[in-house]
Amino acid sequence: MNLPVSRHSAGSKTALLINIAGFQLCWAACVIGGTLWAVICVPLFLGWHWTQRKPGELWLITLITLGGSLFDSLLLNLNLLHFPDYEGAIIPLWLVLLWSAFAATLRHSMAWLLEKPLLAALLGGIAAPWSYYAGSLFDVIQLTTPVLVLIGIAWALLLAALSLYWRER
């Protein structure tokens, strides 16, 4: 009897689960706990992630963190989103750190999604606005419906482009 062979070892499955759970904890720390918890949780997650990194991943994390932070800062400066009790021209540190935590999932727990450009675009276009909306339920960000649509389009394009890029590699 032939048993299906998994392409993941038990250790890599554990690492995938830690990557998933770690990002979810980072999301909660950043969104609910703000900068105080973000500067504790995200560096711990990225420190663990450093032991799991893949070739070229530091470049990817840097690019996504900078690009996402610039995009959200643009939305902030266009008054399309607002952070209560925050007056900076660049998004709050907790959101910059959240971008880096998200980027650390792309070649790990989100790798399956990047193998499917259309699905990546669809899920990015739906899940990202919901994540921002969830943040608004905790009163850490104020949004309008038009900005949620814009965020959905941007994320759909981002994940589709990343998917196509990594598929070609």
Q: Top keywords for this entry?
A:
6 helices; single chain; two-stranded antiparallel sheet; 72% helix; 169 residues; globular; mainly alpha; disordered N terminus
Q: In a nutshell, what does this entry contain?
A:
This protein is mainly alpha-helical and 169 residues long. It is 72% helix and 2% strand. Helix 5 runs antiparallel to helix 6.
What order do the helices and strands come in, and which of them pair?
Elements (H helix, E strand, L loop, with lengths): L9 H41 L6 H21 L3 E2 L10 H11 L7 H4 L2 H21 L4 E2 L1 H24 L1
Antiparallel strand pairs: 1-2
Helix pairs in contact: 1-3, 2-3, 5-6
Explain the overall architecture.
- With 169 residues, the protein is an all-alpha fold.
- It is 72% helix and 2% strand.
- The protein has one domain (10-168).
- Strands 1-2 form a two-stranded antiparallel sheet.
- The chain is globular, with a radius of gyration of 17 Å.
Order of helices and strands: HHEHHHEH
Strand percentage: under 5%
Count of separate DSSP helical elements: 6
User: Separation of termini?
Assistant: 35 Å
Low-confidence stretches: 1-8
**Class per helix and strand makeup:** mainly alpha
In order across it, which strands form the biggest sheet?
1-2
Mean pLDDT figure: 90
Radius of gyration: 17 Å
Number of beta strands: 2
- Measured as a percent range, the helix fraction is over 70%
The global form is globular
Question: What characterizes the major β-sheet?
Answer: 2 strands, antiparallel
